[in-house]
Amino acid sequence: MSFDALGLSASLAHAASTRGFGEPTPIQAAAIPAVLQGRDVLGIAQTGSGKTAAFGLPLLQMLQDARGRYPQEAPLRLRGLVLVPTRELAVQVGDVLRGLAHGLPHRTKIVVAVGGVSANPQMMALRGGADLLVATPGRLLDLLEQKALRLDAVVTLVLDEADRLLDLGFAEELQRILALLPAVRQNLFFSATFPKEVDALAAALLREPLRVEIVPAPGSAPAIVQRAIQVDASRRTQLLRHLAKQEGWGRALVFVATKYAAETVADKLYKNGVFATAFHGDLSQGARSQVLAELKAERWDLVVTTDLAARGIDIAQLPVVVNYDLPRSAVDYVHRIGRTGRAGENGLAVSFVSAETEAHFRLIEKRQGQPVPREQVAGFEPGEVALPSAPEGAGPRDPAAPGNGGVKGKRPSKKDKLRAAAAASSGADGDSDEPAKDDSADDGGYAPSAERSARNAR
Ligand code: AMP
Asked: Which of 185, 213, 241 marks a domain boundary?
C-alpha cells in the first residue's frame, strides 16, 4: 500500500518517501484515513512502530489545507497542538514534523516549547503566531500565562504517550490546558501502552473515537529478544561490563531506578575504562541534549539513565537495553525495552534479576504475557540470600526496596542508608517525566561529579 492510497496529498506522500518511508506501517495505514476524516483516534501500537507520522502526516495535511484557505492570515492561528511528556520527546517530534513539512507547498510554522531552557526564544518564535506547537505541559502553561499564545483556534489536539499524560502525574496541568482548548476539537491519543486506569479518562475526552490497536501477529518473530539474567545486586556493574565486552554490544541504554544510581553506576563504569555516562532529570538541559546527541552519534557505549529516557526517544539502531534495576511496572518495562528494536530492527533487552527482585520480575512477565527464561552467566552465579519477601506493592520506588540499588542480602549499612537518603532527596525514581521535575528549572540535585564533568565521550 502507498501513502497516497490513504488519502494523503501527493506532496505529503512525497514527504513521507523522502524520509525513507517506503510503505505505511500498520498503525499509519489504520490511523491516517480516520484522522483525515476528522475523527478522534485512540492509537495503540508497539514502540517504534511509526506513531509520530501516523498523526503527523494527516495533521500536516490539515494545516496545509488551512493555509491554502486563509493565505493572508496574520497572525497565524494555532491549529495543531501536540503534547508530549518529556522535553527530549518534544524536540524529537518537532524534528520529525519539520522534516515532513519541509518542501510542502505552503510553509508550515512549527514551534517547539519545552522547559529547562529560557522561554524567551520560544516567545519570540510564537510572535506572529504558529500553525503547530509541540510542547511539554508545564512550559505550555508558562507561555499561556505570559500570553505568548492562545489555544482558542486549535482544531486538533494530539497526546503522544497519551497514557502518561493522562495519568496522575500530569492530571492537573492537563486539566488546565484542556480548559483553554475549544470544546469541539479533534483528539488524537497515541501510545504503546494504555492501561485500564486511564481508559475512563480517555473515554470522557474522546468523541466516538476509532480505536486502532495493532498487535503483532501471533507467532511472528519478536523484534526484541528478552533475556533475564540472575545475578546478585552487588555484582551487576561487573556483569554489565563483562557482557558489554564479551557479547560486543556496542551501544546500550542502561536503566536504573534513581538519578543517584545513574551517576554512581556511570562513574564506576567510566573509572573501569568503559565509555559510560549518565542521563537524568537533574542534568542541565544542555547536558541532557548533549548526552542524547552523543549517544545517537555513537560516542558513548553505555548511557546509564532513569526512566526519563524510557518513553518515545527514537535512537536508530540501538542494539541493547538493560534493566539494571527493574522498572516499577510492566508498562514501564514495555517502554524501556521499546528503545531498542525500532522500525522493524532487531533488539535485545536484558534484565538483571536477583533473588529479591525475582517476584517483581515474575509480575512483569505475567502482565506483559510473555515468560522470559532465566539465565546465569559463568563467574556471576548468584550466591546472596534473599531477604524476607518485601511487602506487597513495595517496588523499586522505595529506596530500601529490591531493585533500587541497595546492597542485597544483608541489612543496609550506614553507607546504604546515606545512599538511600540521597536518592530520596533527589526525588528517588520519580525522574521519568513528572511535570514538576521535567519542566521546572534545574534545581541542582545531582550535578555531575567533578570527574564526570571531565569525562569525555569518545
Ligand atoms: P516512531 O514510532 O514514530 O518513533 O517511529 C519509529 C521509527 O520508525 C522512526 O525512526 C521512524 O523514522 C521510522 N518510521 C516511521 N514510519 C515509517 C515507515 N512508514 N517506514 C519506515 N520507517 C518508518
From this structure: 213
Pocket-testing residue among 3, 14, 21, ligand 1, by greatest number of atoms within 8 A of Cβ = 21
Please give the average per-residue pLDDT across 108-122, as a whole number. Answer: 96
Question: Is any ligand 1 atom within 6 A of the Cβ of residue 44?
Answer: no
163 and 278 both lie in a single domain: no
Give residue 365 CA to ligand 1 midpoint distance, Å.
27
Higher model confidence: residue 294 or residue 387? 294
Range of the domain at 186: 4-213
Task: Among 213, 234, 263, identify where a domain stops.
Answer: 213
Closest atom of ligand 1 relative to the 19 alpha carbon: 12
Q: What is the whole-number distance in angstroms between the Cα of residue 200 and the centre of ligand 1?
A: 29
Q: What is the pLDDT of residues 290-322, one digit of tens each?
A: 999 999 999 999 999 999 999 989 998 999 999
Whose Cα sits closest to atom 4 in ligand 1?
48
In the prediction, which pLDDT does 307 show? Answer: 96
173 CB within 6 A, ligand 1: no
- For residues 21 and 160, state if they share a domain: yes
Nearest CA owner, ligand 1 atom 5:
50
- pLDDT value at position 386? 63
Q: What is the mean predicted confidence (pLDDT) over 386-404?
A: 42
Residue nearest to atom 1 of ligand 1 (CA): 50
Instruction: Tell me how far apart the alpha carbons of residues 106 and 62 are, in angstroms, rounded to a whole number.
Output: 11
Give the CATH number of the domain where residue 240 resides. Answer: 3.40.50.300
Which residue type, as a one-letter code, is found at position 394?
A: A
- Ligand 1 centroid distance, CA of 49 (Å): 6
Cell of 186: 479533534
Overall number of domains in the chain:
2
Q: Are residues 132 and 156 in the same domain?
A: yes
Ligand 1 center to 25 CA (angstroms) = 8
Residues 17 and 138 placed together within one structural domain of the fold: yes
- Indicate if ligand 1 lies below 6 Å from the C-beta of 93: no
Interior/surface letters 28-67, b for 16+ CB within 10 angstroms, e for the rest: bbbbbbbbbeebbbbbbbbbbbbbbbbbbbbbbbbbbebb
Element (H, E) at 88: helix 87-101
- Nearest-CA neighbor of 96 among 8, 158, 156, 19? 19
Place of cell 525500532: 342
Q: Has residue 359 been placed in a domain?
A: yes
323-379 residue pLDDT tens: 999 999 999 999 999 999 887 788 999 999 999 999 999 999 999 888 999 999 999
